Amino acid sequence: MQQPNSPPIHRKVGAGQGWRWFVEAFQIVRQQPLTWVLLTLVYLVIQIALSVVPVLGDLASALIGPLFAAGFVMAAAKSERGEELELADLFAAFRQMPGPLLLLGAMIFGLMLVVIVAAVAMGVSGGLMGGLLGKAAGAGASTAAGGGAAVALGALALIGGVLVGMAYWFAPTMVALNRIDPWPALRASLKACLSNWLPLLVASLVLGLSCMVALLPLGLGLLLWIPVAFVTAYTGWRDVFAPQQ
């Protein structure tokens, strides 16, 4: 029997469920579209305001990102209970659990820094190796070594970014709805995503394609696409993780 606040147990689902996550998220948003658009507008205004503040704005955006993600998730759960949404729901996590979600944001920011530093370090070492080989065997060997280092650098950054994204995908939902501490939530999310990489890939492709469609009418479709994207993490969590015992 699970202990309180322990990570929920995940299960493996079929690839087609990734499409279902998107469809179910769209259905949730469609029930109260105007309110979801209002939440999204306020969210975007805050993000734009932060983006004009050099350095500190980007840091603040990274730290409070999980708070907004949790707000959208909690709004989705509230909507499924048949309750009317309101603007205050966007800030529900700020009121109820700011500490754990701010810590989650800091952890994700730190993990991304580790990926970037590791990639840069590999690039530097690859450049040094290329220089040494160039002196020993001429410009051709130097170019080949530099090209190999660039490929390795790109691969490391891509793999690291994907793993961090997997660790984050379900984490805000688990912190908000399961009341899991941030680090166990990150580990549980990573394990669940690795077990369900196929439906996650399908959901990501569907979100990517639908984003391109949303951009067509002057980008106005993003006002509905953004909440659908957030709620897709919620519908995926609901499908992948067994109910608490």
TrEMBL record:
It comes from the Bacteria. The keyword Oxidoreductase does not apply. Keywords: Membrane, Transmembrane, Transmembrane helix. It holds the Pfam family DUF7847. The chain crosses the membrane at residues 34-53, 59-77, 101-124, 144-171, 192-216, 222-241. The keyword Cell cycle does not apply. Residues 37-229 form the DUF7847 domain. This is BPSS1780 family membrane protein.
